Amino acid sequence: MSRLRARFFERDPVTCARELIGCRLVWHGCVGRIVETEAYDAADDPACHTWVRPSARAFVASHQAGDAYVYLSFGNHWLFNILVKGPTAAGFVLLRALEPVAGHDLMRERRGAAVKDARLAAGPGCLGRALGMDRAAHGLGFLGREDCGIFQGEGVGICAGPRIGISLATELPWRFGDPGSASLSRRF
DNA sequence: GCCAGGATGTTA
DNA sequence: AACATCCTGGCG
Question: What Å value separates CA A132 and C1' C6?
């Protein structure tokens, strides 16, 4: 299985978001198959943080492709994005859902014993919680770390639809997923 | 099953 | 004031 390098993220966010479906995320003892992502474009996407946040624009300028962009949403949910930054485009890919592959015990500890395995990281907030995400991960170049990374997966059917939970640019079909997965945050 | 509402902290 | 969310409870 081949490890994704920063080069993978030196392309436009929509392409990256789509091609991440089916890949495996390794994160400090947890492994999950990426089954849902969203793309956010730094150039002209009103839903992207760069649209209204100088701090997000500064992040893009001062970090490298593949670095983690992590922030707190609604006061309790750490959302895990990956910086995409190439010659002609920049933005973020939000990781929205994983199918647990390994580290179930760790994830269950953080999410609660009652949560079904398939639902441990089924949603961006749940994913952050399951992985133990917090501000310490923000800005981290994790692709090359021993205990972290993303690895190529087998090809799967990928579908697209409108992004979830936003109020601007809702017409863009920039949510991607494996429609057969039981770990989607919502059905397509 | 579906929907409305509240918790909660950071940014601007 | 808004927000890239989640869980609960009320109602069919």
Answer: 16
Nucleotide C6: nearest residue by CA–C1'?
A: A125
pTM beyond cutoff 0.90: yes
Rounded CA Rg of chain A: 15
Q: What is the pLDDT of residue A117?
A: 96
- Look at residue A17 and tell me whether its pLDDT is greater than 80: yes
3-state secondary structure A12-81: CHHHHHHHCCCCEEEECCEEEEEEEEEEEECCCCCCCHHHCCHHHHHHHHHCCCCCEEEEEECCCEEEEE
Rounded, the Å distance between the CA of A183 and C1' of B11 is 31
pLDDT single digits (tens) A115-158 = 999 999 999 999 999 999 999 999 999 998 999 999 999 888 99
Looking at residue A64, what DSSP letter applies? -
- Token readout for A15 is 């392409």
From residue A95, alpha-carbon distances to A38, A64, A75, A113, A182 in Å are 7, 18, 18, 23, 16
Domain boundaries A6-177, corresponding CATH code:
3.10.300.10
- Rounded average pLDDT over A54-66: 98
> Where in chain A are the domains?
6-177
Which residue type is seen at A5? Answer: R
